[in-house]
């Protein structure tokens, strides 16, 4: 794969990788994961035309990196604190709002079991088809649907609880 | 979109049975100002997800990645991995070929394999000769052995003839017996005729 082809076909996936990583890690660590994933893909760019889906490859690499980082830093206990970190003072107001809303979505998704987390993210955030998700998680479509169903119901329950809590608190 | 239709779609959504266009349709409705308040939880959920979709890698981070890639050379191992696959495949094929060839040609000249045992040509020829002799011996003995059987055949013929003679003898006896009976009948007839004459 040429340098230009890499820029055209691989670099556009960096936003997807960033969004995926945000379900596992803090903003800074998510940026590191994107960078490391891109470097790894860049190093093996001559092999990339042989892969059926570069997107699936990129997501698998990024997901494994995220899980490694979570394991290394014991993120499990403190993930919510990191995800809900406040935006910087230099962030514009609209971006701040988007970031907070997005952080809430990541916060909700990050509480799901790992398989449900990646499936609901790939479907409801990235809008991938079931077959594309299957290429990443190595599951059959029916299992993916079952996991997705459970994840969506859990998210709804979480939203309802959160909503009630907001009302009670005000 | 009608409320009933939204409910059906949401039911499908929670069962993981909606298609992407249906999910986009739901999203458009739930994020619109006219969405029914009974779907507030779903509207909030779709709102969070919609914001998450808009999130992008910060520009500074993207630039940093581009700069890093410019200073990173492709990993020579990755670049040559495909070549190594080809070379490895060819090497393995050659290794198998030479192993078979060497094991075949390392056998002594004029050696033949019979049922997992090897013999030289001279040994094989001697074995064939001995086998021929043994078969000739067996054949001769077989011929000798069948000669008495021919006499047995003659004996059988004699027996058959004797049996035929016996049957003839029985027939003669039967005829003799019949003749005797006939003679006795004639004597009786003669006696009866004499009595009749006396009566007259």
Structure report:
- The complex is a heterodimer of chains A (170) and B (200).
- Chain A is mainly α and 170 residues long.
- Chain A has 9 helices and no strands.
- In chain A, helix 2 (14-21) crosses helix 3, helix 2 (14-21) runs parallel beside helix 4 and helix 4 crosses helix 8.
- Chain A is globular, with a radius of gyration of 17 Å.
- Chain B is mainly α and 200 residues long.
- Helix content of chain B is 80%, strand content 4%.
- Chain B has 6 helices and 2 strands, in the order H-H-H-H-H-E-E-H.
- Chain B has helices spanning 3-14, 20-30, 40-54, 59-70, 76-105, 121-199; strands at 111-114, 117-120.
- A two-stranded antiparallel sheet of chain B has the order 1-2.
- In chain B, strand 1 (111-114) and strand 2 (117-120) form a beta hairpin.
- In chain B, helix 1 packs across helix 2 (20-30).
- The N and C termini of chain B lie far apart (151 Å).
What percent strand of chain B? under 5%
Which geometry of chain B do the CA atoms define?
A: elongated
Strand content of chain A: under 5%
- Rg of chain A over CA atoms, rounded to whole Å, is 17 Å
Overall SS class of chain B: mainly alpha
**Low-pLDDT residue spans of chain A:** 79-92, 165-170
Number of strands of chain A: 0
**Main sheet specs of chain B:** 2 strands, antiparallel
Report the biggest beta sheet of chain A as strand number plus sense, adding barrel if it closes.
Answer: none
Helicity of chain A, as a percent range: over 70%
If helices are DSSP runs of H or I spanning 4 or more residues, what is the number of helices of chain A?
A: 9
Mean pLDDT of chain A: 81
Q: Helical proportion of chain B?
A: over 70%
Shape of chain A: globular
Global structural class of chain A: mainly alpha
Radius of gyration of chain B, rounded?
59 Å
Strand arrangement, largest sheet of chain B? 1-2
